[in-house]
Amino acid sequence: MAYALFAQRKLEITGQLNCVSLQQTQRSNEQYMLATETLSLQQQMSSMQASQAGELAELYDSLASAKGTDERDRINAQISSKEQSFKVELDEINREIYQTSVKENTLEMAVKRLDTEVTALQKQLEAVEQAESDAIDRATPKFQGVG
């Protein structure tokens, strides 16, 4: 009867270990997706900055060749408007990157918790296996030699 209890407890712990391992795999997949999203956002920001630099360069070239103060004022207003719209777009991307990093940090904490849980379950399983082994040793009859 005791051996059945050991087997039942080992099955229970193994089931819990499998469940936690599945959760770890899911968290790893989520971390991969978030890392991919962050990389995509950073690439988007880089390409946006490059296109913005090109647009502003054209406006600065126009400003350099402007003839009158009215034309310069109009181009300066366009430059200010473009810079402001670019700033809004970049701030939005930075906000998304920040939110993604917060999610990544939360997942990292969850992964650490799961790692701790796996370690505890493995120790429990080892303890049950050791207790089972000790019980088998104690239950096995010991014969002493003749003489």
Please explain how this structure is put together.
The chain is built from two helices and no strands. Helices cover 91% and strands 0% of the residues. The longest helix has 71 residues, at 69-139. It has 147 residues and is an all-alpha fold. Helix 1 (2-64) packs antiparallel against helix 2. The radius of gyration is 33 Å and the shape is rod-shaped.
Salient structural properties:
147 residues, mainly alpha, 2 helices, 91% helix, rod-shaped
Structural class: mainly alpha
Topology order in helix (H) and strand (E) letters: HH
Distance between the termini: 36 Å
Give the DSSP E fraction (strand runs of 2 or more residues).
Answer: under 5%
Spans of at least 5 consecutive residues with low confidence: none
Number of strands: 0
What is the gist of this entry?
Helix 1 (2-64) runs antiparallel to helix 2 (69-139). With 147 residues, the protein is an all-alpha fold.
Task: Map the helices and strands.
Elements: H1 2-64, H2 69-139
Helix pairs in contact: 1-2
